[in-house]
Design a protein that fits this description.
Number of domains: 2
Strand order of the largest sheet: 1-2
Radius of gyration: 24 Å
Helix content: 40-55%
Order of helices and strands: EEHHEEHHHH
Number of helices: 6
Structural class: mainly alpha
Number of strands: 4
Length: about 180
């Protein structure tokens, strides 16, 4: 039978010989402290979630949405200049978020764009316009054009749901 190796306690950091292979703390006091810390971590997470503003939730959604777009378009060329996208590229909006906030989370409006086109050429809009029609189809392009006047009125629950949806899409796309 093998001898049991000593472990480092997750709470106090001291070395101990565990009774079971799954044991992570040296004793009852450390176990209680570790359990308290875990409960506090959960309470803190709920408190932070409840004190976030709508703007903060939208910002989180934008981050998750952009991450999904980057994963979706990782193997495609830049929508504007057709050059291969490197390791770092942007999720470029065809219709800007500032002028058309209703299209902020429209997948047909956002595509992988190299940093040069998106940031230095201000979106390279003329080239983007030519290539977007081929990427999303002529019909979807017309639908996108007609969506410009719609209002974006997402409730907090809808924003939270969209965050879950895009996190799930990211998880599925990563497989």
């Amino acid at each position: 039978m093998r001898s049991i190796k000593s472990k480092k306690c997750k709470e106090c950091g001291g070395n101990f010989t565990p009774f079971k292979t799954t044991q992570v703390v040296c004793g009852a006091k450390c176990a209680a402290k570790l359990a308290e810390a875990k409960v506090w971590k959960e309470k803190k997470k709920v408190m932070i979630e409840n004190t976030r503003t709508r703007t903060e939730w939208l910002s989180l959604l934008q981050i998750v949405f952009n991450k999904y777009i980057r994963l979706r378009d990782a193997n495609k060329p830049c929508i504007s200049c057709d050059r291969p996208l490197g390791a770092k590229f942007d999720a470029g909006h065809f219709f800007s978020v500032g002028r058309y906030p209703n299209l902020r989370f429209c997948e047909d409006n956002v595509h992988g764009q190299c940093v040069h086109c998106n940031q230095h050429l201000h979106g390279n809009h003329l080239e983007y316009n030519e290539r977007i029609q081929h990427r999303i189809s002529a019909f979807n392009y017309v639908v996108l054009m007609n969506k410009r006047g719609d209002a974006l009125k997402l409730t907090l629950d809808e924003i939270k749901e969209l965050i879950k949806v895009y996190k799930l899409k990211i998880k599925e796309h990563g497989k």
